Amino acid sequence: MFDSIHEECGVFGIYEPTPKNVGEITYLGLFALQHRGQESCGIAICDDGVIRHHKGIGLVGEVFNKDNLNELGNGNMAIGHVRYSTTGGNNINNVQPLVIKHIKGNLALVHNGNLTNAQELRNKFELEGAIFRATSDTEDIAYQIVHDRLNTNSIEEAIKESMTKIKGAYSCIAMSAQKLIAFRDKNGFRPLVLGKTKTGGYIVASETCAIDSVNGEFIRDIKPGEILTISKDGIKSSFIESNSSSLCVFEYIYFARPDSIIEGSSVHRARLNAGKILAKESPIDADIVIGVPDSGLDAAIGYSNESKIPYGIGFVKNKYMGRSFIKPTQEERNLTVKIKLNVIKETVENKRVILIDDSIVRGTTSAHIIKLLRENGAKEVHLRISSPAFKHPCYFGTDIDSKENLIACKYNSNEEIAKVIGADSLAYLSIEGAHKLADNSKCHFCDGCFSGIYPIETPKENYKNKFEEKINK
Amino acid sequence: MFDSIHEECGVFGIYEPTPKNVGEITYLGLFALQHRGQESCGIAICDDGVIRHHKGIGLVGEVFNKDNLNELGNGNMAIGHVRYSTTGGNNINNVQPLVIKHIKGNLALVHNGNLTNAQELRNKFELEGAIFRATSDTEDIAYQIVHDRLNTNSIEEAIKESMTKIKGAYSCIAMSAQKLIAFRDKNGFRPLVLGKTKTGGYIVASETCAIDSVNGEFIRDIKPGEILTISKDGIKSSFIESNSSSLCVFEYIYFARPDSIIEGSSVHRARLNAGKILAKESPIDADIVIGVPDSGLDAAIGYSNESKIPYGIGFVKNKYMGRSFIKPTQEERNLTVKIKLNVIKETVENKRVILIDDSIVRGTTSAHIIKLLRENGAKEVHLRISSPAFKHPCYFGTDIDSKENLIACKYNSNEEIAKVIGADSLAYLSIEGAHKLADNSKCHFCDGCFSGIYPIETPKENYKNKFEEKINK
Amino acid sequence: MFDSIHEECGVFGIYEPTPKNVGEITYLGLFALQHRGQESCGIAICDDGVIRHHKGIGLVGEVFNKDNLNELGNGNMAIGHVRYSTTGGNNINNVQPLVIKHIKGNLALVHNGNLTNAQELRNKFELEGAIFRATSDTEDIAYQIVHDRLNTNSIEEAIKESMTKIKGAYSCIAMSAQKLIAFRDKNGFRPLVLGKTKTGGYIVASETCAIDSVNGEFIRDIKPGEILTISKDGIKSSFIESNSSSLCVFEYIYFARPDSIIEGSSVHRARLNAGKILAKESPIDADIVIGVPDSGLDAAIGYSNESKIPYGIGFVKNKYMGRSFIKPTQEERNLTVKIKLNVIKETVENKRVILIDDSIVRGTTSAHIIKLLRENGAKEVHLRISSPAFKHPCYFGTDIDSKENLIACKYNSNEEIAKVIGADSLAYLSIEGAHKLADNSKCHFCDGCFSGIYPIETPKENYKNKFEEKINK
Amino acid sequence: MFDSIHEECGVFGIYEPTPKNVGEITYLGLFALQHRGQESCGIAICDDGVIRHHKGIGLVGEVFNKDNLNELGNGNMAIGHVRYSTTGGNNINNVQPLVIKHIKGNLALVHNGNLTNAQELRNKFELEGAIFRATSDTEDIAYQIVHDRLNTNSIEEAIKESMTKIKGAYSCIAMSAQKLIAFRDKNGFRPLVLGKTKTGGYIVASETCAIDSVNGEFIRDIKPGEILTISKDGIKSSFIESNSSSLCVFEYIYFARPDSIIEGSSVHRARLNAGKILAKESPIDADIVIGVPDSGLDAAIGYSNESKIPYGIGFVKNKYMGRSFIKPTQEERNLTVKIKLNVIKETVENKRVILIDDSIVRGTTSAHIIKLLRENGAKEVHLRISSPAFKHPCYFGTDIDSKENLIACKYNSNEEIAKVIGADSLAYLSIEGAHKLADNSKCHFCDGCFSGIYPIETPKENYKNKFEEKINK
């Protein structure tokens, strides 16, 4: 899958008992989380109570350089953010960390997720004279916390109070002059983990791979509904009443990095499992199993292991194509797919091929890939998707394409879709299968985008309209 | 004068009856106002009620390019800002236009000046739960307007109400979805002028040179205490009760561009006058009168005209030195002055020289220049300054160096200072002289930085502390 | 393998019967060849006899943008080059294409390989008054061709004559005002292939993947000793007397892209074969076979297939680390390896691991990787290398590290090396094995860097000194 | 004058007895020479016999930064170059210093001027198999020197020999491993001066202002036909038979910086003189004399001094417009002139104005400026040009527009031209006047572009064709 399904964000935070190069460490952590958002990023550090930050549009390696990392300097806390932006991307006001001043001091905030009552909150504050700079809902969270801070004794109490008012998905890290506070919505839609450093400090991050990348040690997942405060007094947790957890199952299927462990379950293993379950649910006789790089490879190995059909490497993905790539003006449109992804003819020529991908959105890329396989001599191409079909909007931080564009909404059967994209057969993982892939996970899952059944109330009008609107547009 | 006295900002706004390239025009207007602030800039345009903006750290020519001007696109209103930042410069949150969303819609705001009750306002709003992103006081103005908008029927009414609460210096332009509103504090500390375009539109700008640069026609100054609203219904003005005006006299002496006309008086003429008055007040026998480029040249011609001593060009200023200039590591410190400003020996050799500059701050640059003149054969160097001596802080938008660094605060007499900087004699323009330079101006002046007497109450504690603090630090 | 063995270059050329966007097509072709050189690149196009070019330091996506591609414009021929530079990299004079003017017109030249008599040629020309701007040997080739052009009737005759005088490895494309000429040394050290476009034109490139990437069709390999001229009269070939071919076997093992086909043999298949042969030559009992991404993966699958030990994905490679990555200042040195390459614990924990890499140079990276595997719970780590050990210099266009740094030169046995890098066992592919990996290839191979036996005379003094010198330094 | 007459280059060289920051010093020297060429620049330093260089397209402040100056490092010699390029500008091959390797070692070369027999030289070398990368004639000089070096005992002897073969204008600095050699054509068309440093070293530069800018001391002009060698043995000069000198008189009028002294005459004084002579030759009754900034200001003061008509400042020139300036798309064409150059109404309103400029090329800019003056209330505008009219091509390093575009070629009388550009009257300086402006200069002048009479043979066919060709195009 190349296009159209995007995680919104990745967050990282570090607390050290004594001043250190926390800005640099956060920079490294963001590198490990870059897959969760590639449009903008930022870091805020806290140096003896003073918050300094730098942020910008672009990849971590583009926004940060020696000079601005040096300007950030050392400190004992830092938080960072990588972001995929659904709205234009060029608006610096939306880039996080959000750094604000309020009556009790300074606050920096990073957020992964999406609120379901953002509009209501915004209306409430605006009626009191609030001004908003960003279009993202992070500013709503900040306002709620600051309001609740007026009547509470500490920032963590304010956050706890606020968590009863903000609804939806949020895995956040807040940094005040003295404390680093991680908090996660009561459904635990998005992952958030805790680790420790070799120098007595703590790390909070969206995924364990970020802890690994800075030589930290994973401790545990932050729990749904937990408020975890790190300060000179160590770690303290409190909780709001939590729901039955409902982690986004697509974190396992696509968003998270395979080396991460979420809620006790290895992402890599979950993908292998997805492939295995898929092989059981939708077997087909063939000569080779190949995956669409990079995210389809794990499931392809799983499918191969289960089906005993040999695994092969079917594609070479061009590593050098970035945003700066200039599309050819006079050539046919599918050339770009070919430049990005070339078929290894040796692997597929004269073979019946099982092609594994993690999802289909519009189907155009799948069609191009299948065409390329046939041009390289594949006799049959059976597409197997390691997730159920997208048919419904996500309200919890995933940017799913509009109904009009989703191929699974446009056609009634897998047969029809297979025909449209040129596959000999097509099968998706079943929703039941999706629930089984993280076999040793301790949590439950949200499968709303597949089933249309959501674990909490959703903002019917607004979002649905937006979802439909895209259709009508 | 090279260093240490800085205007804080320049503002520009345009309203057209029908959509046009208002972003491009604002870009041109900001080029003409660049002398008022070189650290950051931005433009916001309003296209059928939708506000888009782009801003960044750097000169207008660095921040804007074809791509981002195209992205801004056409519209029927735009506002722009150039800024000199006193605090680090690297904080994108302070860059204007400030673009916000509030209960009644969108608002963009640009501001030149400085509030005297910013801290009180901020405290008031923070106590109600407000969050601030910027350290500049523009956000305070925005909050006050948005609060007052809750109980008024229009944005211009809200602004009028707010103007009774915000104190100090502000020449502002606000842009809502439908209206462009210029408003100026009741003392008229900073200039603000109105012009019209050839296509039925209106321009508001800090100086007339910006109106000229976009082929507009000057109409009149915006009056102290005026709220001028431009909309599809044309122009309407209302007023708050105004004080006796007190324009910053340093606008004539240094800040404004010589081709601008402020309050009916040509800036160029005011500088010629400053030179003439200075010649009358502090005559000296000499062979040649030269000015320190660029801002000392006008006064030098005035001095020459009055004294009948020939005017000469004493220096070549290097036009190519920008922020990217890398200072030599192993050379003596005054080399940088020499690279920037070389003496034309032909002009000064074996001559008694009257050197005109617009001001002295620390005196170091003056000392270097005088040394260069002597090295090139000047027999005598008599320094004449076309403004009175800086001895007091400014509360109204000028960044004056700390008391400790001001040479006029460190020494008791002109003789002492002359000795320190190596001049044969030194004289400043008298404060009375300063009040006479804009001879046909309709307004009164603030001379607080020279006299220590201010036209309105000043924030004693805070600012004075800051001013002294610099001394003690 | 991350470091220290580098291919020097990739070349691309296109000839179209009528003017087209040949610059853009070459840009795409270079993207597909970027793995052959990442330090600089360039494109020259020929538009109605006029040659325009653009080149620079950096990746293709960094050096080229819409503006400079537009300036290159359309034409009927173009050549391009990607380069890895052994000498500083920052010298624009060495960047190719080399574009020159000579007595008969203009000539652009790109070159992959390395001459063995560059110094002699350079001396000869310099004695006649020649001036050189580059330190690379491409300028020597140009001089020889231009000299031979004085006494021949066509550029292709001149090249043929020159090919009897220049010795060593060269796969070149020359572009004159009218012709595109590909020529390859008589040993065929470096690959060079011919393809055709859908619009009646021809493509010459280092690898077939570049032909694929521009929607071309592969025709055949350019033969050792062949001079192939493409002009309005179509294709013509002539030949110098060729040696028994001796393609660089490391092209199969590491340099070329797995989807390329060289001399009739798929690179991917050759790597699978390398793994299979390695499994036969050096079997070991284990639970999982993993490869070091990306170049060790193919061989790992081959090893797995042959040994029947399951294949697994052992690592996640960070896709976002480029040259701009800033190494942490205060952390231990191996952190960078960890950020680049994180272990998937799920795959290796409590397992006996066979780790496949394509080569070892200094051994430091291998040691880091093995350490990471153990930290993630691997019980045993058996390192298998899908190429023989580097022990000798390459004279034909590969930049091999100095003897002092090559771990295979420093220690006498695989056991010793295994101990140093922390592996439980270590085995290399045998030289005989290397000769068998491209089983259906039509050519012979050079294995000089493994065996020390070279197919042609080598420049003993010079190079050896350089190779030893690095040792003594 | 804004457009169309361009000096080709500025050169700078430094020799120090012991290693120093010569790269940095050259960087400063080039800043002072930037007015002689703004399109590209470069520096080569010699560090213990090893030459390192960096060059690029752009201003000195754009091409050089801390990193690449550091990479250049220290040495005991350096040369630098700023260039205005007549041919596209984007060809890095033409950027100087030209750094080459030849049979006797390394050589770096910078050149200001233009050869008249470049084509013949190029043909001669090409017939011997030479290859050229650049289109500029500097490479021809290098070839000649290298050829002559084969039969001479030193680089300075080779240069002396070469100087009898290369014809036209050249003020050059060559740097070998041991020596810095300045040489100037026997007519001395372009300036070249010698200075010394405070640390026992020597400086060679196009103008004295560059010596001043690095705290050096001017010694004397390099003589026409002189070869001056600086080495560890000190300074030695030899000479070829020289012609009667013929310095380009336009160096005084426009090219050189006013603070420079050429052949004993101050450039500033020469411009004052030009104004004085012009006032005598073409007096007119008026109220004010103003100059077009920056190059018309000196002559305006001269005119004012002679005529006793007051001098005034008529314009403000926008200092911030660089190459990045984006011209407005929808506005009338003359807006750009207005943005660049605004009239100070105060100075010209209701006045009879004498406007002084240094030259007219196409007349379009003059027309715009006169229009602006009238719009600002000038009652009369009398244009006086401080140089004779351009009517002929320059063969010696000045890029004069084609005959078709030169307004003095298109119309027969000053009256006609005055009418076309909207002036009330127009007068040029006489050619005789031009010869008198540098009253204490020791040299004679070339006035070929005014008179059509050249001091040496000119390449009739080639250049004339080019000059005419532009006409026919």
What does this structure look like?
The first copy, chain A, is 32% helix and 27% strand. With 473 residues, chain A is α+β, with helices and mostly antiparallel strands. Chain A has two domains: 6-243, 4-Layer Sandwich (Glutamine Phosphoribosylpyrophosphate, subunit 1, domain 1); 268-320 and 335-472, Rossmann fold. In chain A, the strands form seven sheets. A seven-stranded antiparallel β-sheet of chain A has the order 4-3-5-2-11-10-12. In chain A, strands 6-7-8-9-13-14 form a six-stranded antiparallel β-sheet, with helices on one face. In chain A, helix 4 packs across helix 5 (138-149), helix 5 packs across helix 6 and helix 9 crosses helix 10. The first copy, chain A, is globular. Mean pLDDT of chain A is 91; it is low at 463-473.
Task: Assess the beta-strand content of chain A as a share of residues.
Answer: 25-35%
Rg of Cα set of chain A: 23 Å
Count, helices of chain A: 18
Q: From the 3D coordinates, which CATH architecture of the largest domain in chain A would you assign?
A: 4-Layer Sandwich
Q: What's this, in brief?
A:
The structure is a homotetramer of 473-residue chains. Chain A is an alpha+beta fold. Chain A is built from 18 helices and 25 strands.
Chain-wise SSE layout:
The structure is a homotetramer of 473-residue chains.
Chain A: E1 6-7, E2 9-20, H1 22-33, E3 40-47, E4 50-57, H2 60-63, H3 66-72, E5 75-83, E6 98-102, E7 105-115, H4 118-127, H5 138-149, H6 155-163, E8 168-175, E9 180-184, E10 193-196, E11 202-205, H7 208-213, E12 217-221, E13 226-231, E14 234-239, E15 247-248, H8 250-255, E16 261-262, E17 265-266, H9 267-281, E18 288-291, H10 297-307, E19 315-317, H11 335-340, E20 341-343, H12 345-348, E21 352-357, H13 364-375, E22 380-385, E23 398-399, H14 407-410, H15 414-421, E24 425-428, H16 431-436, E25 445-446, H17 448-451, H18 460-472
Parallel strand pairs in A: 15-25, 18-21, 21-22, 22-24
Antiparallel strand pairs in A: 1-23, 2-5, 2-11, 3-4, 3-5, 6-7, 7-8, 8-9, 9-13, 10-11, 10-12, 13-14, 16-17, 19-20
